[in-house]
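Hi C.,

You asked whether I'd gotten around to modeling the 103-residue construct. I have! Everything is below, sequence then structure, no commentary in between.
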Amino acid sequence: MRCVIARFPFDLTKSGVLESMKGVKPEEAFGASVIIGRRTYPVKQVGQVVTRQDRRDFSAGEVLRAMTQLGFTCRDLPEAAAPTRVLNPFQQASAMLGVPAAV
């Protein structure tokens, strides 16, 4: 499949990406990621290995689009954590003192 990443055309195949990523240790993924084989790789790492370009030269969206079209499972940024309950000053002081012991 022909795709454009960082203004350069690439002919990528699923087997070619699998071969390129073979033996590459995945970095810790904080944002968007791609599942290749049984491993989860950060999108920028995959783009760097496959295109042999610097990570600053392309966007994560370009690589996500290409990997999705090739049939890989892609995950976007993780959802934000649920907002925590805000305690009023009295509740905060009570929490700091702890719960009274049962008699």
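If it helps when you're writing up: The longest helix spans residues 60-70.

Thanks,
B.
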